[in-house]
Write a structure and sequence with these properties.
single chain; 411 residues; alpha/beta; Rossmann fold; 2 domains; seven-stranded mixed β-sheet; five-stranded mixed β-sheet; 12 strands; binds nicotinamide-adenine-dinucleotide
Length: 411
């Protein structure tokens, strides 16, 4: 199923509960602007290669557009469109004053040198610099992009528009970034996992967690949960994974990945396992933190975890979601579970605009407060309306955007 179709199903379910009219549904589902650009760059070899870049600006009823930039070979317009709408609902669920957007370039970043990646990023900014900016649309990191890419974006944007650190978030701390932004998505996943376990009355120490994806989100979620005395029994990346029933040593995993270009291959502190095996691992909490669409009708029945926390965007197909619903597997949905990143991006943007910086403790405290409040609101709504956490989160997000749309005036 295409990513946009999957999100449409979740949207419709919430819209039914909210009794939204057909014209309002159409308005909320339609992107404000979709841009596709070609980006020719000269490779280090002197060869010319053309890449395709996208930016979809979905909805700005609640504030400037906000959303990550993904570098991955499977990026296409449908995926970017789907992820842009997710951002609209996500920023509304945590009630921060943004709309939703997403961008990406169809590229395998590992196959480019650092200089080629920088050229590609700068040429992309050349192509779209009139369409984003601090009050318009603010990109951030996503899969395959990093603080360095954000720094190049800010620098290239400044060549056209002057010093504008708030034009992009997720920048390195030494270059107008925010202490705590890099860890925020994974930390938020950890905070919300603990909130959920607490609500269910499950004891934290020894909770067995399996994490697919050991990049920005997966590593920080693993570290936070290990610090909270959970047992990380399995982790994986694109090359496969490792498991250990007594718990993997997360600091050792991080040291190994740091020393091997971010990859887990060759780790000796656990038994190897495939990504398919990881999804079916014996554990209490499964955290998909890599690609979308990894849990489908074909493999949902093999999942043994009673709780799934969607750290990745759209990792569960609606068919699989229905199976989990029927079986009583609890799913904490992406638009809440991974909202820590955009929340910290908001802090970064606010401080860039004020030319001020909070310390890490304040960032963590504010992040914890916003996520805890949002979780409680979604939990209460799910309980009151007898719906899943996903439907409740969509209801919360969609209703806030619909309300702002009406308040802003429709004529
Ligand atoms: P990343 O590029 O830092 O890491 C991705 C990880 O996934 C890597 O370990 C990679 O090896 C692994 N991976 C790739 N293909 C895989 C496969 N087929 N099977 C198993 N693992 C695979 O990306 P990230 O920033 O950690 O993002 C991960 C997910 O979280 C994405 O879905 C992204 O949209 C979502 N997300 C990220 C942020 C953020 O702030 N970075 C915010 C919200 C949501």
């Amino acid at each position: 199923m295409r990513a946009s179709e999957a999100i449409r199903i979740y949207f419709d379910r919430a819209a039914d509960h909210l009794d939204l009219s057909a014209p309002m549904r159409r308005l909320l589902l339609t992107a404000k602007r979709e841009v596709q650009v070609h980006i020719p760059i000269e490779r280090d070899s002197g060869e010319l290669t053309t890449f395709i870049g996208y930016r979809v600006q979905h909805n700005d009823a609640r504030g400037p557009l906000k959303g990550g930039l993904r570098y991955h070979p499977q990026v296409d317009l449908d995926e970017v469109r789907a992820l842009a709408s997710l951002m609209t609902w996500k920023t509304a669920v945590v009630d921060i004053p943004y709309g939703g957007a997403k961008g990406g370039i169809a590229v395998a970043p590992a196959e480019l040198s650092t200089h080629e990646l920088e050229r590609l990023t700068r040429r992309f900014v050349d192509a779209i610099h009139d369409l984003f900016g601090p009050d318009v649309d603010i990109p951030a990191p996503d899969m395959g992009t990093s603080g360095d890419v954000m720094a190049w974006i800010m620098n290239q944007y400044g060549k056209y528009h002057g010093f504008s650190p708030a034009c992009v978030t997720g920048k390195p701390v030494e270059y107008h970034g925010l202490p705590g932004r890099e860890e925020a998505t994974g930390r938020g996943v950890g905070i919300l996992t603990l909130k959920l376990l607490g609500r269910l009355g499950r004891p934290l120490p020894g909770t067995r967690v399996a994490i697919q994806g050991f990049g920005n989100v997966g590593t920080h979620a693993a570290k936070f949960l290990a610090d909270a005395e959970c047992r990380i029994v399995a982790v994986s990346d694109a090359g496969g994974g490792f498991h250990r029933a007594e718990g993997l040593d997360v600091l050792e995993l991080l040291r190994h990945a740091r020393a091997h270009g971010g990859l887990l291959a060759g780790f000796t502190g656990g038994d190897p396992m495939s990504n398919a095996e990881l999804l079916a691992a014996e554990c209490d909490v499964l955290i998909p933190a890599a690609l979308g669409g990894v849990l489908t009708a074909a493999n949902a029945a093999s999942v043994r975890a009673p709780i799934i926390v969607e750290a990745a965007n759209a990792p569960i197909d609606p068919d699989a979601d229905a199976i989990f619903d029927t079986r009583g597997t609890l799913v904490l949905p992406d638009i809440l579970a991974n909202a820590g990143g955009v929340t910290a991006s908001w802090f970064e943007w606010v401080q860039n605009r004020q030319h001020y910086r909070w310390g890490i403790n304040r960032v963590r405290q504010e992040l914890g407060r916003i996520l805890a409040e949002s979780f409680e609101q979604v939990w209460q709504l799910a309980t009151a309306r007898q719906v899943s956490l996903r439907t409740a989160a969509y209801m919360q997000g969609v209703s806030r955007v619909a309300k702002a749309t009406v308040l802003g005036g429709l004529s």
